[in-house]
Amino acid sequence: MHDLANKSGASVSTIARLFHTEMGSTFQEWRQKVLLAHALTLAAKGMPIAQIAFELGYSNPSAFSFMVTRLVGMPPNQFLRQE
């Protein structure tokens, strides 16, 4: 968000406020939902959870697992493998 603020000439707080007004969530919340949706797509293609984590830019599978569990209330091996 700092890059966007620098390029637009607006402050980070202004960008954050406008994003929340337009999208109904913080940038971080929105980003995590987008990543989770992409994770579902990759899991449907049979990609292993560790590979999904790295594909989405997480430094390790534990960080990805923490994000998924916090968002949906269950670990990725349960959430992503639901039928």
Describe this protein with a few key phrases:
about 80 residues, mainly alpha, Arc Repressor Mutant, subunit A
How does this structure look, described?
- With 83 residues, the protein is mostly helical.
- It has one domain (2-79): Orthogonal Bundle (Arc Repressor Mutant, subunit A).
- 72% of the residues lie in helices and 0% in strands.
- It is elongated and about 45 Å long.
Tell me the layout of helices and strands.
Blueprint: H1 2-8, H2 12-23, H3 27-44, H4 49-55, H5 61-72, H6 76-79
Helix pairs in contact: 4-5
In short:
The protein has 83 residues and is an all-alpha fold. It has helices at 2-8, 12-23, 27-44, 49-55, 61-72, 76-79.
CATH topology category name: Arc Repressor Mutant, subunit A
The best one-word shape is: elongated
User: Largest sheet, described in full?
Assistant: none
Please state the second-level CATH architecture: Orthogonal Bundle
